[in-house]
Write a structure and sequence with these properties.
Blueprint: E1 5-7, H1 9-16, E2 21-24, H2 27-32, H3 37-51, E3 55-62, E4 65-68, H4 72-80, E5 87-89, H5 94-99, E6 104-106, H6 108-118, E7 122-124, E8 131-132, E9 135-139, H7 141-148, E10 152-155, H8 164-173, E11 178-181, E12 200-202, H9 205-218, E13 224-227, H10 238-254, H11 262-273, H12 277-300
Parallel strand pairs: 1-4, 2-3, 2-7, 5-6, 7-10, 10-13, 11-12, 11-13
Antiparallel strand pairs: 3-4, 3-6, 8-9
Helix pairs in contact: 3-4, 3-12, 6-7, 9-12, 10-11
The structure holds pseudouridine-5'-monophosphate (PSU) and manganese (II) ion (MN).
Pseudouridine-5'-monophosphate is lined by residues 25, 27-28, 31-32, 90, 107-108, 125-127, 129, 140-142, 260, 263, 267, 282.
């Protein structure tokens, strides 16, 4: 097992002692944000987890080995790699990256799988993948993973480049509870609300922990979406965002961009079209979600 997965001493000690640990994904470093924002944001997320009293575990595949708890040097190196030079790994890509001894970045789905292997129950990120607009069969593997792996994903909903009503329908089919943290609607990623109702609105990390604990007692194998709105001062007006998203989506279709390239293309294009405002919102919500993830992990432990 040790040549398959390596858990950093800090993370494994925390897990052994029952102290809170929060998993963080690496795709946002290699595919979600440009250098040096990616490095700064990944380090700021780790700092936010620590400030809230938990241990961060950023996860990637390095030289074909799952590493749970990247070092600062690992994060800096991944962040500086040329865009497109590492594999974006979801469930189906993991065995390929491992067998070939690659360095690879993990999506929410692959981070859930590897966090669960390590015994981590909470993951924080920006937005989960979902059902793509106009392409109802392009469904992120994140949604399937949420249905089968017991990890709570603290996020600001699904990226607003997606079809949010269909994404919620799919989560329902997969049996995934959608919890609103301080909100009764699914957050709209760059905007505080999508206007779509969640399954339950809670105000405290303890309430989230109680639901996760109840699922464990039921023997339920599914995960959770814990939706946290982007902080007030960084959120964007819905109309302006919608315009940029519609334009970027049409461009992606016209250019024939497909598969796992779609999400990175849309994120980058929307940032261009909004003069960087969407990226500022993205960074603010990532750091805030890391903090809330730590609070939930603390309530669970
Ligand atoms: N959230 C962000 N930026 C990102 C992603 C999420 O703020 O880059 C990544 C996550 O890794 C997520 C992936 O799992 O996009 C979804 O990709 P796809 O739609 O191809 O499944
Ligand atoms: Mn897809």
């Amino acid at each position: 097992m040790r040549d398959l997965i390596q858990i950093s001493p800090e993370v494994s000690e925390a897990l052994r002692a029952g102290r809170p640990v929060v998993a963080l994904e690496s795709t946002l470093i290699t595919h979600g944000l440009p250098h040096p924002d990616n490095r700064d944001t990944a380090l700021a997320m780790e700092a936010a987890v620590r400030d809230a009293g938990a241990v961060p575990a950023t996860i990637a595949v390095l030289s074909g080995r799952i590493v749970v708890g990247l070092s600062r040097a690992d994060i800096e190196r991944l962040a500086a790699l040329p865009p497109g030079s590492v594999r974006k790994c979801s469930r189906r890509d993991l065995p390929i990256a491992i067998a070939r001894g690659e360095d690879a970045a993990l999506t929410v789905a692959a981070t859930m799988i590897t966090a669960h292997m390590a015994g981590i129950r909470v993951l924080a990120t920006g937005g989960i993948g979902g059902v793509h607009r106009g392409h109802p069969f392009d469904i992120s593997a994140d949604l399937l993973e949420l249905g089968r792996t017991p990890v709570a994903v603290v996020c600001s909903g699904a990226k607003s480049i997606l079809d949010l009503p269909l994404t919620l329908e799919y989560l329902e089919t997969q049996g995934v509870p959608v919890i609103g943290f301080g909100t009764d609607t699914l957050p709209g990623f760059y905007t505080r609300s999508s206007g779509l109702p969640v399954d339950v609105a809670v105000r405290t990390p303890a309430e989230v922990a109680a639901i996760i604990t109840a699922a464990a007692r039921l023997g339920a194998g599914h995960g959770f979406v814990v939706g946290v709105p982007v902080p007030e001062d960084a959120g964007m007006p819905g109309g302006r965002m919608e315009e940029a998203v519609a334009k970027a989506t049409a461009e992606a279709s016209a250019k024939g961009i497909s598969g796992k390239a779609v999400t990175p293309f849309l994120l980058a294009r929307v940032a261009e079209l909004t003069g960087g405002d969407s990226r500022r919102a993205n960074i603010a919500l990532l750091v805030n979600n890391a903090r809330v993830g730590a609070q939930v992990a603390a309530a669970l432990s």
